[in-house]
């Protein structure tokens, strides 16, 4: 094994979720305003030791997956059941040699970095096992039942509830799945156990729930509400007119009698939104992250700045509640372009266009805007940030 183990995450998200009571597959349904799978993927995307992520999806879900995970996210089609889907994913991963793989349910969006760390620590212990799984000791009294009646009490001593992620030495889990009888495994640890392998139990958090039934979604919303706060940031930007024949506002190039002067593309709308988002995060302003003294950013597309601010929000497990920008100018006319600007902002922020508002006003001929000397914009961003990951 290399001195720095190479670790991949395999996210299993090919199920239909028939018991969830939702219109579509549960992993693509919203929780806290964003798809369940997006939250799940973020937990692994932001973990410093996970080198790559592959998601196993149903062939019918490619469009849903790209909407939830982004156009660059890697996926492979699953099989007839979970066991076949995992084997499909493992087979795809073998082209890039790995030391460990973490196999996780796509419908467990609240897995913590602490749980992932615990599984990895167990795999890397001096007396390393063949596998390590997140698990919870059974605390409830267990009953046997038939026809709706209790037929006795079952001992709960030494019983654990298997969760995910389940981590394995990659060659061992690939071989085990290839040799396993089709359709029998209820989790990945069982195929290792059938070969006589050793699997370690890693205590998990009770909040690492799998969303299966309708009530689980209500519980997920409650977990988020109890562990999130709303923060608001304000942004303002202004640029003067200079010689030219077009301006860039909201990511849209608009023909005009002048251009806007600035170190980058002088996009006042995107600059104000970016500063508002930095403000909500307590991250200063654009100049702190992209100094105008740095020639690298001369003429830069301001979407780069907004995407950077959005990436900081995502790294903290946050999400956009709303982004509202007002562009202040006499000309050019903003209304004909506002919908396209809204789409650009939503794409940069990774949110629905319905959470973005782009509008314009004039100063009734007053001030520098009224004298047509330049354009200003002001923006307010509201975000939801976890106080502690559920």
UniProtKB/TrEMBL annotation:
The keyword Nucleotidyltransferase applies. Pathway: Isoprenoid biosynthesis; isopentenyl diphosphate biosynthesis via DXP pathway; isopentenyl diphosphate from 1-deoxy-D-xylulose 5-phosphate: step 4/6; Isoprenoid biosynthesis; isopentenyl diphosphate biosynthesis via DXP pathway; isopentenyl diphosphate from 1-deoxy-D-xylulose 5-phosphate: step 2/6. One of its GO terms (biological process) is isopentenyl diphosphate biosynthetic process, methylerythritol 4-phosphate pathway. Signal peptide: none annotated. InterPro entries: IspD, IspD/F, IspD/TarI, ISPD_synthase_CS, MECDP_synthase, MECDP_synthase_CS, MECDP_synthase_sf, Nucleotide-diphossugar_trans. The record marks 156, 210 as: Positions MEP for the nucleophilic attack. Residues 231-390 are annotated as: 2-C-methyl-D-erythritol 2,4-cyclodiphosphate synthase. It catalyses: 2-C-methyl-D-erythritol 4-phosphate + CTP + H(+) = 4-CDP-2-C-methyl-D-erythritol + diphosphate; 4-CDP-2-C-methyl-D-erythritol 2-phosphate = 2-C-methyl-D-erythritol 2,4-cyclic diphosphate + CMP. Keywords: Isoprene biosynthesis, Lyase, Metal-binding, Multifunctional enzyme, Nucleotidyltransferase, Transferase. CDD domains: CDP-ME_synthetase, MECDP_synthase. Residues 1-230 are annotated as: 2-C-methyl-D-erythritol 4-phosphate cytidylyltransferase. GO terms for molecular function: 2-C-methyl-D-erythritol 2,4-cyclodiphosphate synthase activity; 2-C-methyl-D-erythritol 4-phosphate cytidylyltransferase activity; metal ion binding. PROSITE patterns: ISPD (PS01295), ISPF (PS01350). This is Bifunctional enzyme IspD/IspF. It comes from Parvularcula dongshanensis. The gene is ispDF.
């Amino acid at each position: 094994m290399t001195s720095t183990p190479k670790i991949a995450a395999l996210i299993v998200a090919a199920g239909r979720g028939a018991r969830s009571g939702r219109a579509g597959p549960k992993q693509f349904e919203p929780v806290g305003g964003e798809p369940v799978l997006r939250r799940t993927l973020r937990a692994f995307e932001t973990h410093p030791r996970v080198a790559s992520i592959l998601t196993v999806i149903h062939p019918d879900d490619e469009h849903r997956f790209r909407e939830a995970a982004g156009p660059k996210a890697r996926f492979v089609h699953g099989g007839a059941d979970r066991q076949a889907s995992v084997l499909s994913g493992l087979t795809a991963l073998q082209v890039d040699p790995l030391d460990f793989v973490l196999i996780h349910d796509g419908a467990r969006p609240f897995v913590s970095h602490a749980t992932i760390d615990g599984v990895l620590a167990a795999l890397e212990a001096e007396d390393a096992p063949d596998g390590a799984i997140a698990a919870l000791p059974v605390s409830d009294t267990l009953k046997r039942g038939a026809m709706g009646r209790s037929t006795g009490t079952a001992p709960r001593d030494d019983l654990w509830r298997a969760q995910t992620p389940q981590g394995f030495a990659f060659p061992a889990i690939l071989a085990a799945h290839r040799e396993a009888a089709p359709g029998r495994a209820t989790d990945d640890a069982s195929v290792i156990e059938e070969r006589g392998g050793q699997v370690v139990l890693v205590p998990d958090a009770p909040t690492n729930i799998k969303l299966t039934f309708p009530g689980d979604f209500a519980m997920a919303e409650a977990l988020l509400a109890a562990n999130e706060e709303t923060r608001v940031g304000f942004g303002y930007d202004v640029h003067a007119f200079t010689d030219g024949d077009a301006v860039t506002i909201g990511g849209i190039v608009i023909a005009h009698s002048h251009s806007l002067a600035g170190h980058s593309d002088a996009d006042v709308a995107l600059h104000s939104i970016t500063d508002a988002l930095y403000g909500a995060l307590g991250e200063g302003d654009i100049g702190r992250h992209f100094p105008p003294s740095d020639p690298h950013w001369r003429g830069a597309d301001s979407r780069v700045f907004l995407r950077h601010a959005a990436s900081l929000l995502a790294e903290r497990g946050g999400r956009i509640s709303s982004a509202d920008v007002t562009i202040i100018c006499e000309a050019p006319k903003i209304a004909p372009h506002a919908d396209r600007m809204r789409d650009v902002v939503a794409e940069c922020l990774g949110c629905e266009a319905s959470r973005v508002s782009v509008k314009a006003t004039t100063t009734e001929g007053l001030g520098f805007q009224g004298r047509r000397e330049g354009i200003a914009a002001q923006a307010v961003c509201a975000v939801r940030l976890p106080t502690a990951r559920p």
